[in-house]
């Protein structure tokens, strides 16, 4: 590991710190079964300093928007991956909790103006279709 990578781990950029704080803030009020898994995976993505800094500085995302997007993407990946199914098309307990958190996250994105009801409806239909196909 190079010197700049070590320094980056010890002193992460401001964007990484704020995004990680936002992930923790967004998830701290939830006590669902999947929270530890989702928090771990979303924080791991946020700690990719190059991508996080690029998303905020170049793409213009706000840290809370990026935090919601990372949580959302972790949930989609897990639900569409089939890892939390008990059998084809049927989610287990953690999978059901992830689906609940997915809906909550999507609605929070709408509330903050980062998404629309139309996008939510399209995403929900696509996610439900994928859940039925895998497992």
Quick structural gist:
The protein is mainly α and about 140 residues long. Helix content is about 75%, strand content about 5%.
Number of helices: 7
Strand order of the largest sheet: 1-2
Shape: globular
Counted up, domains total 1
By helix and strand content, what is the structural category?
mainly alpha
E-strand count: 2
Task: Provide the low-confidence segments as ranges.
Answer: none
N- and C-termini, Cα separation: 38 Å
Report the helical percentage. over 70%
**Mean pLDDT value:** 93
Radius of gyration: 16 Å
Main beta sheet, described?
A: 2 strands, antiparallel
Task: Tell me the strand percentage band.
Answer: under 5%
What are the secondary-structure elements, in order, as H or E? HHHHHEEHH
What do these coordinates show?
The chain is globular, with a radius of gyration of 16 Å. The protein has helices at 3-10, 14-28, 35-46, 49-57, 63-81, 93-111, 117-133, and strands at residues 85-87, 90-91. The chain contains 7 helices and 2 strands; from the N terminus they run αααααββαα. By secondary structure, the chain is mainly alpha-helical. The protein has a two-stranded antiparallel sheet with strand order 1-2. The longest helix is centred in the middle third of the chain and has 19 residues, at 63-81. It has one domain.
């Amino acid at each position: 590991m190079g010197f700049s990578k070590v320094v980056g781990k010890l002193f992460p950029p401001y964007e990484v710190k704020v995004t990680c704080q936002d992930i923790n803030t967004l998830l701290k009020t939830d006590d669902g079964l999947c929270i530890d898994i989702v928090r771990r995976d979303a924080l791991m993505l946020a700690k990719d300093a190059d991508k996080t800094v690029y998303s905020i500085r170049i793409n213009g995302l706000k840290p809370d928007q990026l935090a919601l997007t990372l949580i959302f993407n972790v949930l989609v990946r897990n639900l569409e991956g089939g890892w939390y199914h008990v059998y084809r098309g049927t989610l287990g307990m953690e999978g059901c909790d992830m689906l609940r958190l997915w809906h909550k996250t999507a609605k929070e994105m709408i509330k903050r103006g980062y998404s629309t009801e139309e996008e939510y409806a399209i995403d929900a239909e696509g996610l439900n279709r994928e859940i039925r196909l895998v497992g």
